[in-house]
Amino acid sequence: MAACAALLLTAGCSSGDGGDPDKGGTSASASDTPGASASGSSDAVPPAEGSVTVVRTVTENLKSPWGVAPLPDGGLLVSSRDEGTITRVDTDTGRKTELGRVPGVAAAGEGGLLGLALSPDYASDHMVYAYFTTASDNRVARMIYDEKKPAGEQLGAPDTVFKGIPKGMNHNGGRIAFGPDKMLYAGTGETYHTELAQNKESWGGKILRLTPEGEPAPGNPFKDSPVYSFGHRNVQGLAWDADKGLWASEFGQDTWDELNDIVAGDNYGWPDAEGKSGDPKYHDPIAQWHTSEASPSGIAYAKGSIWMAGLRGERLWRIPLDGTKAAHAPQAFLKGKYGRLRTVVAAGGDRLWLVTSETDTRGTPGKGDDRILELKVS
Q: What is the pTM of this model?
């Protein structure tokens, strides 16, 4: 698969969100498996230069926010990694209402209550899915959200749909999302046990594809396995483009962070390759960054581009797409203005929700941190 020229930034290799914590088969066609990368592009190729305008601050004073799930009525559900709670944010007023605490969350290091996603049938079942760390593993559970109950008591008992994902102090993955095929995708980490990434019998260092009930999804590349792609270090962002192609962001170690187009069954190289290797055994990223410039977390698709939140890099990257390659060099916005950036979510049309991450123990929180911003992008 063709790959764009790398963005070779001048910053040197570094630790922190790089080598230190918090950095950190056969292909199915897009027509066979809707989550696989598509070869065409429904949108016109975006221009080289885009723009970002901060429209407003939606809410402030969030504690270790991580996952975000937009509700049909326009509100947002936000997880607190360290407190193990889910909070509803009214996007009109900024008012916060705590739904409740997810039982069994064991927050430590980069583990805790991480990604959130709404059931594809949320209108009828009101199910919220959460990826979280327990005392023994990382797992995915679903809970009924009943907003008619009193605040703090609106979450039903968790029903575990998938467990046994390796856990560690670091590299727990955590992003979950339902794809256009209504299957559940989960990005996992290798917990600093690098050998797990190449072991298809381990769920660490993978992108998993599951049914809503937690079974291996039909059409997965490896028989009776939830593994969709492997050879990942720590997948932190998942998003689909207009052609239902799947994209993922990934922490590198000391050299290269990555944005990958994901193809079912492909090997993304870790730990044998970090960034572009040119080895045909491995699927090269379409863009790469020195770790000090990115440490990528959440991603979203809007206006023909992938938008990627940077933790250590403290900026929002725009990667304009042309099919499964970058149309132009990545472009950075908001550098250092809001600190560490954890999650970015499409809000429809030219709007994004952007979540900061200064209260995650690695930032320098100021008055109002953490916050959610509404952006207008092009």
A: 0.91
